[in-house]
Amino acid sequence: HRRPGGLSPMADVRNEQTRERSGRYVISLDGADAGFSNYHLQDGVLTFMHTEIDPGHEGQGLGSALARGALHDARARGLRVVARCPFIASYLKRHPEFQDLADA
């Protein structure tokens, strides 16, 4: 079985808002954090700053799963997205289903 967003049953993406205008999306695998994407939030715009997957988990598709989960959450919250992070920017270019979120 797969969860919404294409994650395996053992992977999960959660939003950890650390301050009023910033936070990170975290992907965990089997209950252990495996990577994150930092963001700033202001005026309805979610700006992704940096994404990182732990070296021991690279090459497993977790970066894409993290991006997909974060973008699904942004859409559900009615937010626009700016990708200053090269990984998220590349993901957006490769996935036209999220182009409607992009804020010039």
Record keyword descriptors for this entry.
alpha+beta, five-stranded mixed beta sheet, 2 helices, 23% helix, globular, disordered N terminus
Helix and strand topology:
Layout: E1 11-19, E2 22-29, E3 32-42, E4 45-53, H1 62-76, E5 80-83, H2 86-94
Parallel strand pairs: 4-5
Antiparallel strand pairs: 1-2, 2-3, 3-4
The overall pLDDT, averaged over residues, is 90
Distance between the termini: 36 Å
Shape: globular
How can the largest sheet be summarized? 5 strands, mixed
Helix amount: 10-25%
Give me the secondary-structure category: alpha+beta
- Uncertain parts: 1-7
Strand content: 35-45%
H/E element sequence? EEEEHEH
Give the number of DSSP strands: 5
Number of helices: 2
Strands in their spatial order, largest beta sheet: 1-2-3-4-5
Radius of gyration, CA atoms, in whole angstroms? 13 Å
Explain how this protein is built.
With 104 residues, this protein is α+β, with helices and mostly antiparallel strands. Helix content is 23%, strand content 39%. It has two helices and five strands. The chain has helices at residues 62-76, 86-94, and strands at residues 11-19, 22-29, 32-42, 45-53, 80-83. Residues 1-7 have low confidence and may be disordered.
